[in-house]
Amino acid sequence: MAKTLSKAPDMLERARAIHADLSAVRRAIHARPELSFQERETALMVAAAMKELGYEVSQNIGGEGVVAQRGEGRTIAIRADMDALPIQEADNGVYRSQTKGVMHACGHDVHTSCALGAARLLASLFEEGAIGGRIRFLFQPAEETINEEGKSGAVLMLEEGAIENVDALIGLHVDPKLPAGKIAVRQGALLAACDSFNITVRGRSCHGAQPEQGIDAIILASQIVQSLQTVISRRKSPLQPAVLTIGGIKSATYRPNVVAAEVELTGTLRYFDQSVHDMALQEINNICSIASVFGGSFELDYVHDTPALYNDEAICALVSSVGRQLLGTENVVNIDPQLGADDFSHFTAHVPSCYLVLGACIEESPRDLHTPTFDIDEAALPVGAAILAQTALAFLDPR
User: Fold this and answer.
1) Is 101 part of a structural domain of the chain?
2) Domain span at 284
3) pTM
4) Catalytic residue among 39, 64, 109, 143
5) How many domains does the chain have?
């Protein structure tokens, strides 16, 4: 693998020179967020920008995905997700979301802006003849959810050949708790596998004054919710990281004097070891049978959304080396495994990859992902663009 060169251009200096432009792009995307599988305007903007930079562009890959590339030969790809979340944004100033009930609460606006910034930095080097190889950009739709067939944007792009002939892949995710100017890298297991499930618990409705005439689905569902926690606390080794969360409960009826006939539960299971998945699925089925014991019934809809994300040792070493070169050794840190998930993991199963973490903390007011107040320190933008561009350049060994 090519090593970073001491004579390589100072990408961070170049990136900081276009900081205002990166900020403008990020704010424009942030103000007009689009949900998974609906990223049409974002994709059109991305495609137009990449064409203007001289990249060969393919659109509507895996839905609204955009693939753009330039050069020939050995290939490294850069991935950025584009979709937003169904969250109503709090007042974040002039660039707050203009779409009711939708916001970029996970930083995908940042990821897309960093990738566009990297594309701009690299385009000038292509013009100078300084890059020997091919760089491909994957602007991915639908990272946050899956379609009716259980497929996310990464899976759909894979099926359409987005990473064919790719030798390495990098991507990043902002961390609103890590200081801006730092990156975090981890070899091996980084993010957990993610399963989602819905449980429909059925009883028999009746008047609340005569509960003996019905079968209370809320009581059955409550017992199931409590018992599900024993899957983690009593059915697996405490040495195996895993978490099971029930994120929602919904009754078919919502009246004070009606015994509910049906309740829906929705939840997620996160883990690294496949044996935990196998055990948990069996145990969830067993626990749901509580409903049958008391005269009701249940239906379990269980979906394996994403596998665990494993970073490649050599690509991570390259990213860390680039980070130390650009940011200083003290600003490249290790990170512990996380029980969050990202469908980037589907790519890592096929090509050596590194998914790095980009610091973006607003020090005076730290934020959280997936919340109405999420925001970043935009000093992270040139750092992200520079890391992506310099890593691609180092991997291809510039002439």
Assistant:
1) yes
2) 193-305
3) 0.93
4) 143
5) 2
Cα–Cα–Cα angle for 89, 95, 97, nearest 5°?
Answer: 35
The pLDDT of residue 7 is 43
User: ∠ CA(334), CA(340), CA(346), 5° rounding?
Assistant: 95
What residue type is assigned to position 22 of the chain? L
Note if 83 is an active site residue. yes
Any idea what the CATH number is for the domain that residue 203 is in?
Answer: 3.30.70.360
List the CATH number of the domain containing 376: 3.40.630.10
Boundary (domain end) residue, out of 305, 327, 346:
305
Annotated catalytic residue within 34, 83, 273, 305: 83
CA distance 372 to 103: 8
Q: Of the candidates 133, 139, 118, 4, which has an alpha carbon nearest to the alpha carbon of residue 58?
A: 139
Asked if residue 50 belongs to a domain, the reply is yes
81 noted as active-site residue: no
Q: Report yes or no on 3 lying in a domain.
A: no
Dist. CA 139–CA 119, nearest whole Å: 12
Reading the block at residue 259, the tokens are 């015994």
| Cβ contact 374:173 at 8 Å | no
Summarised one tens digit per residue, pLDDT across range 151-178 is 999 999 999 999 999 999 999 999 999 9
List residues bridging with 384 in a β-sheet: none
Q: Are strands 353-361 and 168-179 parallel, antiparallel or unpaired?
A: parallel
